[in-house]
Amino acid sequence: MIPRIHKMGTRTIGLIRYLYGPGTHEEHTDPHLVAAWDSLVPDPGRNPKATYADLQRLLDQPVEALPTSRRPTEHVWHLSVRAAPEDPILTDEQWGDIARRMVAATGMAPEGDTAACRWAAVRHADDHIHIIATTVREDGRRPRRHNEAKRSQAEARLIEADYDLRRLNTGDGTAAQRPTSAERHKADRHQRERTPREALRESVRRAAAGARSEEDFFGRLTHAGVLVKQRVAPSGDLLGYTVALPDDRNKHGEPVFYSGSKLAPDLSLPRIRERWTPPAETSSDEVVSPEQPALPPVTGPAYARRRATTATWQALLFIEHGDDGTAAAQIAAAGEVLDALAGTSAAHTRRELRDAAFAFERASRSHVRAVRGHDRALRQAAHDLAHSGSALGSGEDGATTAMLIDTAFLLVTAAANWHAKKHHAQQAEAAHQAAEHLRAAYGIAAAQPMSVLHQRGRSLSLQRRETAVLRQALPEIAEQVLAEPGWPALAATLADTRAAGHNPAHLLAEATRHRELDSATSVSDVLVWRLRRLAHLPADPAASLPRRAATTQPVPKVANNASRQR
């Protein structure tokens, strides 16, 4: 249940006309009172003899009773309370009870206070009510409204429990603005999956994820089919921007524009510019990825995904072992990687990846100030993904997509744990939702390459040889891994590492050295992708293996002691 306190108004009659009217897009149906400060208050919605002016005069009486010099200019208070889409439809009596609890919790009309403010609750849709009140009490004093927004949220959590509604987490003020009911109704009428506000937020995030400059950013927005207006100062400096969908029009037939800051706090032009600010020099205690060599420029979707996997793994270490500012920066940059991955992956995984990026958007922001610089590898990965083109659904493209999704799942899970420790409830929940979408996307992307590995790994002679390797390298978890359905695929991968000139036991130990596996749903699957990445094997098991002349050498330790695994 979401309570929202709106901007104070000056005309009571104006808000009454809106609440009882048809709405901006004819979305109001059967407007009527469900509760008021007095049971005898006339209802213009159900009583044909009652008028809007009758209700206005009664609400304004305490205001009009004051001398003109003492009357507040803005005296119209407005609170809307909305149920979650999956909640049952509440009765008028239930909404009336909710209205009374809300005016009591916010200080407008405390329970038992006979001199409280006058108010009325109007219902014109199944899922929400509006409460209008005037901010002068019957005794001429002003109500105590300190922290009214927080108190309304706290009461909403209690109402959810009492009515067995969806339990929401209290926000911290960093969430993007939710679509209004009018926007949702308009989207339903036009059979849109998402409101224009949400669709534009997604488009702007994707454009920002692959951009390196203002020119690049606005060019990518235009290429995506978004209408863009730039706000320019008389000096010629760019101050901001607004965006609109070409087919989203108001009643005058004009495009409906939204500023970046109205889409999300981190999409204002100044915040986007922060992404292009050259990072500070790497500090001496920065976590260095032990397996990342100097890499040439990205040459295609599969290679971009390989490099993004390495950057995502490095970011995972930062989140788990870095300071808060560094972790916040990595989590924000992870959102860019998910946006870029969703926009460039094959059709069969695109839906789940898009939903993962959409959900994680909430997890990418908090009040912890991000320290830029350490996140440049992830931001570079997002840029590479966006500019390398769309991946195919099979072969090396599809297999590297599965590899990246597997690592991204671990990163998103680490982000959820980090937010939970910081008591960022909404962000933690959003990250968990993103992880579930990534889990589904992984199942789709990994089906073909894992099936090939599984068939190859069913050889009994191969399994006997690699079982000995597994028990030598990982005696603590060997029996668990051997019992997993994915063991044949891991056995085939161990054989591939040997064929490529590596020492399988050494490489297997290295694959588990830098992070625990307790949180993995399938240890075998996780190790398959770690080994193929560490050994620089083709992600697609059907591809030919690289030839290596020497066995794997010990890998240098991570520079920062704090980055050693638990």
Commentary on this structure:
The chain has 566 residues and is α+β, with helices and mostly antiparallel strands. The protein has 4 domains: 2-163, BirA Bifunctional Protein, domain 2, CATH 3.30.930; 194-276, no CATH class; 278-445, no CATH class; 457-557, no CATH class. The two termini are 40 Å apart. Helix 6 crosses helix 7 (214-223) and helix 10 (301-321) packs antiparallel against helix 11 (324-344). Helix content is 50%, strand content 8%. The radius of gyration is 29 Å and the shape is elongated. The strands form 2 sheets. A 5-stranded antiparallel β-sheet has the order 1-3-5-4-2, sandwiched between helices. It has a 3-stranded antiparallel β-sheet with strand order 6-7-8. Mean pLDDT is 87; it is low at 281-296 and 548-566. The longest helix is centred in the C-terminal third of the chain and has 32 residues, at 425-456.
Compact description:
The chain is of the alpha+beta class and 566 residues long. The chain contains 20 helices and eight strands.
- Rg from alpha-carbon coordinates: 29 Å
Instruction: Give the helix tally.
Output: 20
* C-alpha geometry: elongated
Unreliably modeled segments: 281-296, 548-566
Q: In what order do the strands lie side by side in the largest sheet? A: 1-3-5-4-2
Strands, count: 8
